[in-house]
Amino acid sequence: MSENPKKPKQPRKRTKAKKLNISKRKSWQDIVNGVDKKEVPVSILQKIMVSLVDGTEIIINVKELISDGQNPDDIEDMLDAKFNELDAYIKNVDFFVDVDKVKDQVQPQTDQALKGL
């Protein structure tokens, strides 16, 4: 009778546990990215990137303009005038939102609405 030697058991491969990184900022980033808006308040903008039909890209740092003391309403009026003036030359306009400002404005309202739950 021949013996069937048992193979030694292989040690289980340990897979490294994946850490879930859930941050409030990331959650707000996901919320903001999921919204398709045609108009955005100037006060929450970080920058605007204007692409012209000739391939030129113009970046307007709105956050910097506001921090330099410019009034958001004045910035909005200036942008409206320029966009209307250059409409035939504008291919696309991308608005980059300051997620932290959105969070700071919306979070208190969200907390208030969900307070009783």
Give the topology, please.
Elements: H1 24-33, E1 45-52, E2 57-60, H2 62-67, H3 72-85, E3 90-97, H4 99-114
Antiparallel strand pairs: 1-2, 1-3
Protein described:
This protein has a three-stranded antiparallel sheet. It starts with 23 loop residues before the first helix and ends with a helix. Helix content is 39%, strand content 17%. It has a domain at 40-114. The protein is α+β, with helices and mostly antiparallel strands. It has four helices and three strands; from the N terminus they run αββααβα. The model has no long low-confidence stretch (mean pLDDT 76).
SS elements, strand count: 3
Order of helices and strands: HEEHHEH
Percent range for helical residues?
Answer: 25-40%
Derived from helix and strand composition plus strand pairing, the structural class reads: alpha+beta
Proportion of residues in extended strands: 15-25%
What's the average pLDDT? 76
Low-confidence stretches: none
Q: Gap between N and C termini, in Å?
A: 73 Å
Strand order, main sheet: write it out: 2-1-3
**Given the structure, what is the number of helices?**
4
Radius of gyration: 26 Å
Largest sheet: 3 strands, antiparallel
